[in-house]
Structure formats: C-alpha cells, structure tokens
Task: structure prediction
Amino acid sequence: MVPTKVQHKKRQVAIFIILMFLWETDAKSIQYSIMEETETGTFVANLSKDLGLRVGELAQRGAQVIFKGNRQHLQLDPQTRDLLLLNEKLDREELCDSAEQCVLPFQVLLEKPLQFFQAALQVRDINDHAPEFPAREMLLKISEMTTPGKIFPLKMAQDLDAGSNSLQSYTVSSNPHFHVLTRTRSDGKKFPELVLDKALDREEQHQLRLTITALDGGAPPRTGTSEIQILVLDSNDNAPEFAYQLYEAMVPENSPLGSLVITVSAIDLDEGSFGMVSYALFQDDDVNQTFKINALTGEIRVRDTLDFEKFQSYHLDVEATDGGGLTGKCSLIIKVLDVNDNSPELTMSSLNSHIPENLPGIIVAVFSVSDADSGYNQQVICSIDDNIPFLLRPSVENFYTLVTDGPLDREKKSEYNITITVTDLGTPRLRTQHNLTVQVSDVNDNAPTFTQASYTLLVPENSSPALHIGTVSATDRDSGANAQLTYSLLPPRDPQPG
Ligand SMILES: *[C@@H]1O[C@H](CO)[C@@H](O)[C@H](O)[C@H]1NC(C)=O
Ligand SMILES: *[C@@H]1O[C@H](CO)[C@@H](O)[C@H](O)[C@H]1NC(C)=O
Ligand SMILES: *[C@@H]1O[C@H](CO)[C@@H](O)[C@H](O)[C@H]1NC(C)=O
Ligand SMILES: *[C@@H]1O[C@H](CO)[C@@H](O)[C@H](O)[C@H]1NC(C)=O
Result:
C-alpha cells in the first residue's frame, strides 16, 4: 500500500471518533406544541434554527423526521428542508385517547455525518366534543317508602376531550325532591348520583320528569342532556343489594372468548317475584361489547378479544333489578394482564448497502427497534453474527447503528449477508430477523503484477520489423476500471558498461 493511502486512513479514524463523540453526547430534547385539528402544512418550527444548524444543512445532511411506527405527522418543508411543517391534521382523541397529556416523541436523524436529535410534539386539546348520554331517557323506579338521603346512581355521559375540556359536572332541573351529585369513578370518569331530599308520596304524584345536564369545562362549556323518568311505587318492596360495593378481577389478554372473569351476586330480602334478581351491565357504552353478563347467574365473561396494548383496565357497573323494578348497583374493576403477544419490530431509517473497502468505522445502517408489549415483554436485545467484521452500537433511545469493525478488503470478500436478530425478554421469547446484503466497492489498492518478474525473449538477427517475438502478461486484483491494464515500453536503460 502506498503511503498517501495510509494517511487517508488515519484521517478517517479521527473523523469516526469525533462522530461517535457527537452522537453520544448530543441528546438534548426540544418540545413543540400544536393544537389538534390544525390545517396540514402549518408551520411548526424553524428546525435549522432550533438545532443550531446552518441554513441548508438539514438538506445537505439528508435529515429525516422519525416518529414511532413510521407515522409522518410532521415533514420538512419540501423546498428548503429547514422548516418543520404539519404533514396531516392531528386528532388528539385518536392519537392519545383519554390521556391527560398527548406527547408524541420523535427523532431528527442526520446522516453524513450521523447525528440524532430528540424532540417531541405535544398535541393540545380543543373542545371539539360535547358530553353525550348513552340514552335520551332513563327510567328510575323508587318506592314511596324510601327515606330522604337515599342515593340513586345514574348513567354517566361521555366526553371524548381531555383535561379541562372533558366532562366536569352534572346539574338537574330544579325540583323539590332531588339534587344531583357529581362523583369520580376509579378510572377518573365523572358520573351522576341522584339524592332524595324529600320523601315521595304516590297519592300526590305517580311520576316525575327531570332533565339532567352534563357540562364540560370548555369556555363556553358544551353540554349534553337526558330525561329522567321517575315512577313512584306503592309497595313495601326491598331493593336488591350486592355482596360487595366493588369487585376486582384480573384477566390475561389472550383469554378465549367466553372465559369466566368473575361472578357478582346481589340478594333481595323479599319473597316471590319481588325477591327475584336479574343482572345487567349498567352503562351500555363500549365496555358492554368487551364483557357480557348472564342475567340470571351474574357471571361475567369475555365477549370480545382483549388487548393489553389498547386497554389495561375496565371499569364496569352492574345493576341488579328485582321483580318490582327496584335496583341496586355495584362496581367492577377488571385488570387486563399483559401476555407476550407482539414480536419486536425493526424499522430501518438509513441503509448504505455499498461501502468502500479499506476504511474503518463505516456506517452501514441506522435502525430502531420497538416492541408493543410492556415490562419484560417489551425489553429487547439486538444482535448480529459474531464472525463477521461488523459491530452493532446502541445509540439514542431505541436506535442502533451497524458499523464496519475495521477496514474490509474487497479482494478477499466482496459481499456480506448480515442478519440482525431482535429478541424480546418475554415468555415465550419472540424474535424478528432482518437480512441485509452489503457490497464492498472497489478502491484501486492493488498495483498490476506481471506473471513473471523478468522475461527473456529471443530474437534472431536480421529479423524483419513487426515480427511477433513473444508475450508479456500482467493481472490486477481490483475490479472494473481499476483492473483495466495498458502496457507500454519504458525507454531503454543506459547500456551497461563493459
Ligand atoms: C430559519 O432560521 C435561520 C437562522 O435563524 C434563518 O437564517 C432562516 O432565514 C430561517 N428560515 C426561514 C425560512 O425563516
Ligand atoms: C349492550 O348490550 C345490550 C345487551 O347485552 C345490547 O342490547 C346493546 O345494544 C349493547 N350496546 C351496544 C352499544 O352495543
Ligand atoms: C447472500 O444471499 C444471497 C441471496 O440470499 C445469495 O445469493 C448470496 O450468495 C449470499 N452471499 C454470501 C456471501 O453468502
Ligand atoms: C435471513 O437469513 C437467515 C440465514 O441466512 C434465514 O434463516 C432467514 O430465513 C432469513 N430471514 C428472512 C426474513 O429472509
């Protein structure tokens, strides 16, 4: 190898070391904030400025914005690539469900040289949903013997917004008998309870109609209403009562449909049909579709597939009704247990499948790994075969870089098949493999060599010109243009003295 090449190699090593230093220390995080439902193409930030880069540097260095699951919420503006723009209208409710804070982390990846920046996009809620009751009308049967102070749970309204835009309180139309309380459930949702202030008299009034209003915390608040029809019963009937006010159960997310979760039970002190209890789910919104209850036995079973990654727990209310129409209520919290049912995922951000020979520390690939499970089921390890001259380096977050471990020699091996294996630590272990092929491209590092160090050709005297007197031959181990040879004769050396 010629001396100039050795020097070139040393400089590459130095650049590589500086780079490693950069990507390991440059992990500050920037947070941007945008209102949900903002129009596509809206300016979010001057990214060059915020990252302290030169104008045009993001374009030159092949910048990419990477969100989880390859979603393209933001884009670099197509002309200059300095500005960050909104790439799609965002719906906070779709992205973050009922979570109080909706923050989507992302990375800005620069290649040439490699550098990562951590950032996050906060999607702020707007009050785009009103509270809504599951039904326009609710029916409540109350015995005239009921004493003031008795509480009657009512079906709650839903508001898809979060934080202060979510449902905050309930009011009821003014009347002499009842007032309403706003209570908070174990999952944070607010439900109404009707409190009896003054005893009912069936001789005076057979039935009452009230209007209940749910208000959210927007300015101005949005509202939803429902009618409550109250029938006053003339009986000495007792209302059913559950053994417990609150039941708790756990269920693995892979439970087959129809699996028994728990059995609830209520007793009613009356005889005959007034003592017969039947069960039903109190709130007929979406929880209804995940679990079902047997009206006679109180057995609660899985009705639809569970997914820990979507819902970790459910709050259900169960109502028991006796033959006279009086009711009792209990609450049930069902916790879903995680099962290792998601394989790890590998997302390739950048791949350089042609790499030059002779240089050390070339970045072949930048990729991220993730796993949709939680806990141990989510933790992953990442590996490649150890008999190949490549290394995996962990980088920020879940990113890895695949780099060459020392210089490669195309003349020895021109192609490598690399298998990246990502395994999680769950039981059973699940793994994902990603195969890639790397071609080593040629550098003109081999001089042509003659088949013999010296050739002796015999020429008879008085030969005529252009007579073929013999052949010399050289080969070159490089490829392509680097291996094409031309021959020429050097001027004759000075005749040897003597
Ligand atoms: C972004 O910020 C840089 C540096 O402050 C500035 O030079 C450039 O003009 C800005 N780009 C735009 C399009 O505003
Ligand atoms: C809830 O279940 C009941 C019967 O179990 C059914 O009549 C009702 O339509 C269900 N509600 C929804 C929203 O699916
Ligand atoms: C790499 O894989 C390809 C296709 O799977 C195969 O044709 C090639 O021979 C492999 N190369 C090496 C060096 O194993
Ligand atoms: C990757 O390569 C390995 C070994 O060469 C092979 O067993 C595996 O099936 C390949 N995987 C994919 C996804 O092609």
Remarks:
- Residues 5-124+342-441 form a domain with the Immunoglobulin-like fold (CATH 2.60.40.60).
- Residues 1-27 have pLDDT under 50 and may be disordered.
